[in-house]
Design the sequence.
């Protein structure tokens, strides 16, 4: 049974007239009659009563018509849902995001995106390993520190992020134009745990210089970290992303030198995976938001 035969059958049922049905379908009347004959031969029963020029639907034809309408209704529903997906009216979008400040940044963007697309289901996967959800097709894209070249992934750079030495505005180093990384070893440090990617980067840098970071206090939240610094309990090192996202009254942020600390933040996705319209719009919004937050340095 072919789809074209069902189209012919539906048209004849609608008009109860072969010539008018053929005109609607844009085919000749003999071609239409042949398609109906093939369909009747396949089901093994007549679908129409032909009494002179009058045509009626048989009991078997009524049964087929019921299921035929269900098939065409399902097809119409499929087309509508595909169009809705293209227009981002419904569907699901999943984003894997590196835990920490990048997650904070993307969450703000997703809030705006969700308001603009209320019928689109959005899932955020916070992870220290953004690659795994993408490879497992649990996430459409990932926002993370950009990977080394990997032929499996496409990547879209968003911004290059610097790190700063953050302290109270009455700290002895608060008037400096920069602070050398080596000076940090003499300070009371307040830092994120070593499970955080940014902390791992700082530990690696200090190890390369010849000392180990020994924080006085470790905390898992940025709010508690900032409050501790504002209270005078110590100093920290933070990314430019966090400095732009949070109020830091009474604090100063000074660039770090020798070495300066930078990392490239961007979007990764499987090259072979088709990016739906909603995903492409979200990527554009993330890039635009980075510009508006001054995370992207203008040359």
Sequence:
């Amino acid at each position: 049974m072919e789809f074209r035969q069902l189209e012919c059958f539906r048209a004849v049922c609608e008009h109860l007239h072969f010539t008018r049905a053929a005109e609607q379908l844009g085919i000749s009347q003999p071609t239409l009659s042949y398609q109906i004959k093939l369909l009747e031969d396949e089901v093994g029963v007549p679908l129409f009563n032909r009494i002179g020029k009058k045509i009626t639907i048989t009991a078997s034809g009524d049964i087929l018509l019921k299921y035929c309408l269900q098939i065409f209704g399902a097809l119409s529903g499929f087309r509508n849902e595909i169009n809705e997906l293209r227009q981002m009216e419904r569907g699901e979008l999943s984003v894997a995001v590196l835990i920490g400040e990048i997650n904070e940044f993307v969450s703000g963007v997703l809030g705006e995106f969700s308001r603009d697309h209320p019928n689109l289901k959005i899932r955020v996967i916070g992870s220290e390993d953004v690659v795994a959800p993408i490879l497992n097709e649990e996430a459409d894209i990932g926002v993370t520190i950009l990977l080394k070249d990997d032929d499996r992934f496409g990547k879209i750079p968003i911004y290059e992020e610097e790190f700063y030495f953050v302290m109270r505005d009455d700290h002895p180093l608060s008037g400096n134009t920069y602070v050398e990384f080596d000076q940090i070893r003499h300070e009371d440090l307040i830092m994120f745990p070593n499970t955080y990617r940014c902390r791992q980067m700082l530990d690696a840098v200090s190890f390369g210089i010849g000392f180990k970071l020994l924080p006085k206090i470790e905390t898992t939240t940025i709010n508690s970290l900032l409050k501790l610094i504002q209270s005078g309990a110590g100093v920290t090192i933070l990314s430019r992303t966090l400095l732009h996202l949070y109020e830091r009254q009474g604090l100063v942020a000074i660039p770090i030198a020798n070495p300066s600390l930078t990392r490239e933040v961007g979007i990764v996705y499987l090259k072979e995976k088709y990016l739906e319209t909603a995903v492409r719009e979200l990527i554009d919004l993330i890039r635009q938001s980075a510009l508006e937050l001054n995370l992207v340095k203008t040359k």
Q: What stands out?
A: The chain has ten helices and twelve strands.
